[in-house]
Amino acid sequence: MTTEMAREIRPITQVWGGKFMTSPELAEVEQEVGLPEKSLYLRGRSAVLGDPPPGVVADLFGIFPAWLFDYLLPATAAVPSGRAVEAYVEALSRWSKNHFAGVGDAERLTALLQTVIDGADGSGLALFAGWRRVAPPADPLARLGFALMVLREYRGGVHFAALRAVGVTVGEAVVVDPEGGRARLLRTAWSPEAADELIARARPDASERWRRAQALTDERMAELLGATLSADERVELLTLLRALDVVAS
Questions:
Q1: What is the Cα–Cα distance from 184 to 169, expressed in whole angstroms?
Q2: d(Cα 174, Cα 162) in Å, to the nearest integer?
Q3: Distance of CA 22 to CAs 9, 17, 41, 109, 187, Å?
Q4: Rounded CA gap, 30 and 22, in Å?
Q5: Lowest CB count within 10 Å: 2, 190, 224, 235, which one?
Q6: pTM for this model (two decimals)
Q7: What is the pLDDT, as a whole number, of residue 2?
């Protein structure tokens, strides 16, 4: 059941741990702190590691073209990394309070998620390791959003490692992912020409390799869930996440 559970919670944590990243709340905070449009996501998410160069951030994020970081990140340098982290958390907090108001037993769900996060090995997972050390917000709904975001960073980091282990680049993974493809590349700042080039370069067995990476990621997530939660707690976590997925807006 644990591997099946890992597969089921993936889209829930992926969606609800990341939806704030393109939200009006994030754009609002971005404007308040004086950052250029669409830059708080890049600056705030990476600033947990200080001030890494644009090329390093491009490698960490994986799915965006490098030119985007070269263009936007230097324009955010006037906002210190600590302030950028605070702004990112503030945007997440506002979004969470607006969208999780109907979630029942949010504090218990947060506690279970936090148990999983605390028990995870962060070695080699830079963004997860950084965000796990940030103090969560005080508001209960904001804390829930924060825990979902941090667990999303964990799974994302593990998945990137799995992709490289099977010999697939992140770009190839986006190309062959049933939820990705050319349309997603265009939504994430790739030009039509660059997207077509990326698609043309994908190796013939990229889809099979991607499926292996997904299976490896689910296995590692299952191990983490099994190591940190009892059988009853795993059932409780899944039940609460299913309920969140129904009522969150």
A1: 16
A2: 14
A3: 21, 12, 8, 24, 12
A4: 11
A5: 235
A6: 0.96
A7: 87
Comparing C-alpha atoms, which of 107, 149, 188, 183 is closest to residue 14? 149
End-to-end CA distance of the chain: 28
- C-alpha 171/C-alpha 199 separation (Å) is 9
**How many angstroms separate the CA atoms of 239 and 249, rounded?**
18
32, 86 in Cβ contact below 8 A? no
166 residue type, one letter: V
* pLDDT mean for each 10 residues of the chain (249 residues): 91 97 97 96 98 96 95 95 98 97 95 98 97 97 98 98 96 93 94 94 95 97 97 97 93
CB 48 within 8 A of CB 118: no
Q: Which amino acid, 237?
A: L
- Please name the residue that has the structure tokens 């998620």: 113
Q: What is the mean pLDDT of the chain?
A: 96
Residue 162: which of 123, 121, 212 has the closest Cα? 212
Left if phi > 0, otherwise alpha if psi is -120 to 50, otherwise beta: which for 203?
beta
Q: How far apart are CA 43 and CA 217, in angstroms?
A: 27
**Cα 216 from Cα 165, distance rounded (Å):** 9
CA–CA gap between residue 194 and residue 58 (Å, rounded): 16
Token couple for 72: 């936007």
**Rg of the chain in Å (alpha carbons):** 18
- Written as six digits, the tokens of 7 are 């597969």
C-alpha to C-alpha distance for 208 and 194, rounded to whole angstroms: 23
Query: Can you read off the two tokens belonging to residue 83?
Result: 């302030």
- One-letter amino acid of 151: L
